[in-house]
Design brief:
This protein is of the alpha+beta class. The protein has five helices and eight strands; from the N terminus they run αβββαβαββαββα. The chain has helices at 4-23, 84-93, 106-114, 153-161, 187-206; strands spanning 32-36, 42-46, 60-64, 99-103, 120-124, 141-147, 172-175, 179-184. It has an eight-stranded mixed sheet, with helices on both faces. Strand 6, helix 4 (153-161) and strand 7 form a beta-alpha-beta unit. The longest helix has 20 residues, at 4-23. The relative contact order is 0.15. Bound molecules: zinc ion. Zinc ion is lined by residues 30, 83, 102, 104, 178-179.
């Protein structure tokens, strides 16, 4: 069961998911999304295998940091995503993170492969860098790490951890050939981060830097 406040969060998250789906950033049931519930150690997260254009409130479940589904959401066919551990890892490391979003766009995927040898994408001089939390000017360098993909999530976590020292200096990372993870203090900030990175991917691609 959701509390009234959690229901509001869930509705806002579903709206964001529909927006990403309409942009083509969550094809073929891929991608996953979460928001911290009213309890600091509990997460509302998208369940696995749902068409994101038809995603609704009943496709969100509550889990704890061990990935266990809250009893009122459990059912024979209900599973959280294989990538749940990436979400819970971020929430445990950084209390300031309250929303995590993971998209699979064409450009994010292409750039993550083309720039994999550099292990990061470097963004510099764009006004829209201010779309990322705490960036107050375009006169900065934003680094987006690229980590290797794996079907073993603990391996992805080990690669991520090299970039996740506190205070957190990055706003997300790309998994090679796979997609973007980003986060925020709330759903609006995380959604803005997805949009900002997608804009920066388009600029990078259009300028032939790949
Ligand atoms: Zn994915």
């Amino acid at each position: 069961m959701f509390t009234p406040h959690e229901r509001q969060l869930a509705e806002e998250l579903v709206q964001a998911i529909h927006f990403f789906s309409a942009q083509g950033w969550s094809p073929a049931t891929s991608t996953n999304y979460s928001v911290r519930s009213d309890k600091p150690d509990e997460v509302i997260i998208s369940r696995s295998g749902v068409d994101k254009s038809r995603f609704d409130l009943t496709d969100l479940i509550k889990i704890n940091f061990a990935g266990e589904i809250s009893p009122s959401f459990a059912g024979a066919t209900i599973k959280s995503s294989a990538e749940t551990e990436i979400h819970t890892h971020l929430y445990q490391l950084f209390p300031e993170i309250n929303c995590v979003m993971h998209t699979h766009s064409v450009l994010g995927t292409v750039l993550s492969l083309q720039l994999a040898p550099e292990k990061q994408i470097r963004f510099e001089g764009y006004e829209l860098l201010k779309g990322l939390e705490d960036n107050l000017t375009h006169e900065l360098v934003e680094l987006l790490p690229i980590v290797p993909n794996s079907q073993e999530i603990p391996q992805i976590l080990r690669s991520m951890d090299r970039h996740l020292q506190a205070p957190l200096k990055i706003h997300g990372f790309l998994i090679e050939g796979h997609g973007l993870y980003t986060w925020g203090k709330n759903i609006a900030a995380a959604k803005r981060h997805v949009e900002t990175f997608e804009f920066l991917f388009q600029c990078t691609h259009a300028m032939g830097r790949n």
